[in-house]
Amino acid sequence: MRNNMRNNPLTLTLAAVLLLISVGVSASAHHATASFDMTKSMTVKGTVTGFDWTNPHVYIYVDVKDEKGAAEKWSVEMASTGMLARAGWRRDTVKAGDEITIFGNRAKDGRPFLHLSKVVFANGQELAQNAQN
Amino acid sequence: MRNHLIFSAAAAVAMFALLPAARGQDAAHQGSVPDLSGVWQVTKYQPRMFPNGGAPLAPWGEAKFKTANAETNDPNLGCLPTGVPRLMFVPLPLEIVQTPTRVVIIHEGVQALREIYLNRQHPKDLDPTYSGDSVGKWEGDTLVLDTIGFNDKTWLDAVGLPHSDATHVIERIRRTDHDTLVDDVTIDDSKAYTKPFTIQQVYKLKPGWEIQEYVCEENNKYTYQGK
Q1: Is A117 helix (H, G, I), strand (E, B) or coil?
Q2: For the domain A2-128, what is the CATH code?
Q3: Which of A98, A108, A122, B157 has the fewest Cβ atoms nearer than 10 Å?
Q4: Which chain A residue's Cα is nearest to B222?
Q5: In chain B, what residues touch A26 (CB-CB under 8 Å)?
Q6: The complex's ipTM?
Q7: pTM (predicted TM-score)
Q8: CA distance B99 to chain A (A)
Q9: Top-ranked range on mean pLDDT: pick from A21-35, B63-77, B167-181
């Protein structure tokens, strides 16, 4: 299920908060989020198919089902392994098969590609990608 | 007896060779040389040196700036060196290590190493490089860095402010309190800009942080070099 959150005042506020978070210190060092629309936040919910614990970015791969049940393959870009480890992430934080909700900013070119703000796991646990400073 | 003399002389030479290092470290610990060592992280990421525009671009710089596209031709995308001074603005930690004759800055970002020589001047006829040649001296509590010898292949910031091979970077680094480091970075490049300008970057000490591996080429989905 994919929600485009642009029209709801509550989610607009949430988007603004996430934007404030995302332009903080943790912004990507490698390319400065130039490829993403940092003015609009959105969420995707789906099933994890892969997790690259790599540099210069960590990636989560998610299958997101549309209304007809067809899976769209999304990629989610995050910070480096070092910065994520400082924010509480580990190489096995995300596993294939996990049901997760991703908050992030979509690629400007419209690809199913997000810059992550935070992830919410099925048990309600949340992880941002920012080390608290 | 003669062997003893030779041994003693060798020992004396060895001690003499070691003494300056020992003296310098003691001096640093005793506070006569400021201690900037530690792992530091920028307090605020500044992708733009001029967030509201207004960079004093000269025609050469203006023309080069127009060719910059952060999504397609930022040298960092292809993992080319970040270079000086942009390295100092990267939102990944850096570690400062001091010896009597060097200040070494280890940058987690792209695993860059910056050496600042405290005991020599710039060599003549420098080959142009991404990070140039840095020399430093102490002025009171401030480490003053002077860097020249650049190529023109790096950007000053993440939106592509350019610089030429005539760039002269002067940095004034000091600890304003135990947990705070400030670097005033002055860029003097009469080819690219109409006047020098100074951008400040503030860092916080990060006790317990260690510099981690960061291999830019490992899983880089942004490489455009050669395409």
Answers
A1: strand
A2: 2.40.50.140
A3: A122
A4: A31
A5: 45, 91
A6: 0.80
A7: 0.82
A8: 26
A9: B167-181
